[in-house]
Write a structure and sequence with these properties.
alpha/beta, six-stranded parallel beta sheet, four-stranded parallel beta sheet, 13 helices, elongated
Length: 314
């Protein structure tokens, strides 16, 4: 296998000169550059990627910790990241976690070992205190609101006002027995917290949702949960996890011959538009582009995007 030393010897130049040519360093004469490039092509030399990364001090890779892709929020966020990466010299390294803290810690260690230049957490199980201990090794960006951190950047969605608008619409229609569906129905989910705060704002602090379900991600989950909802004749309103979930619920009601309660989706997907569903646009595609920009930035920043409730006529 041809080495950089072989190229340097045949070209009659130092190895450092060949390295500068390979890495497009400007301080090489045109004649020498052409001579080295001709030999590289003639000898079919392939630079060692790891060695190039070490010499540049950068890998041109950004890690993206993602729990799963079962919910369209994450798929749209990834699409935003991918489109932003296409316009740069950086590659994305997808790091599936399924909210496993040991896996997340292993990805943080990759940042420490300089296997990646930056790390984006689309969602997490690991504590902020632990994540902050790795901030000295490279840029870390989180997709959530951070309070007072000067070590981590974040970009997040302010969902609260859109949930208030959605619940206000339900209340104006006289709906009282609401079902709320979530991917995660616990305090670690910003969506869950925002939705419950908005619910209490609209219906009162003493009021509680009729039913709450977690672990609802896609069309099939919506179809399956509809089989339980159909048995409860009191239900008159549903906040679905996504438009796909809403479509699954509607399908279940149609198959049973029952009328589907008023339903609001989320994520503003094509299926929701085809069904003319009221929905909440969480702008996750734009969030993906924003966090990629932050991962490349030299400065710490906190950015916010505002979710929007879209009624049937929008």
């Amino acid at each position: 296998m041809t080495s950089i030393s072989d190229i340097a010897k045949k070209a009659g130049v130092a190895k450092s000169t060949v390295s500068r040519v390979i890495n497009h360093h400007p301080h090489v004469s045109d004649e020498t550059r052409q001579k080295v490039m001709d030999l590289i092509n003639e000898l079919d030399y392939i630079p060692n990627q790891l060695a190039r990364d070490l010499s540049r001090g950068k890998t041109q890779k950004i890690g993206v910790v993602i729990p799963h892709t079962r919910h369209p929020y994450f798929t749209q966020l990834i699409n935003g990241l991918l489109d932003a990466a296409k316009a740069s010299d950086y590659q994305l390294v997808m790091m599936p976690s399924d909210y496993n803290q040991e896996l997340e810690l292993s990805y943080l260690k990759q940042l420490k070992m300089e296997a990646i230049d930056a790390l984006i957490f689309t969602s997490r199980a690991t504590s902020l205190d632990m994540i902050e201990t790795y901030a000295k090794y490279g840029r870390i960006v989180l997709c959530e609101e951070l309070q007072g951190s000067n070590l981590l950047s974040s970009a997040y969605l302010d969902r609260y006002s859109s949930f208030v608008d959605a619940f206000s619409t339900m209340k104006a229609r006289g709906l009282e027995h609401l079902v709320l569906l979530f991917s995660r129905d616990n305090e670690s989910s910003a969506t869950y917290q925002s939705a419950l705060l908005a619910y209490h704002h609209v219906f009162g602090q003493q009021s509680t949702p009729h039913l709450v379900f977690g672990n609802i991600h896609d069309f099939n989950d919506g179809l399956n949960v509809s089989h339980q909802l159909i048995k409860d004749a009191h239900i008159d309103g549903i906040l679905a996890t996504s438009d796909e979930v809403a479509a699954g619920i509607i399908k279940g009601y149609e198959e049973s011959g029952n009328k589907c309660p008023y339903i609001i989706g989320q994520e503003h997907l094509l299926v929701g538009q085809l069904l003319n569903l009221p929905t909440i646009d969480h702008k996750s595609y734009s969030l993906g582009k924003l966090v990629f920009k932050q991962a490349l930035s030299e400065s710490i920043s906190q950015e916010v995007l505002i979710s929007e409730f879209l009624s049937e006529d929008k």
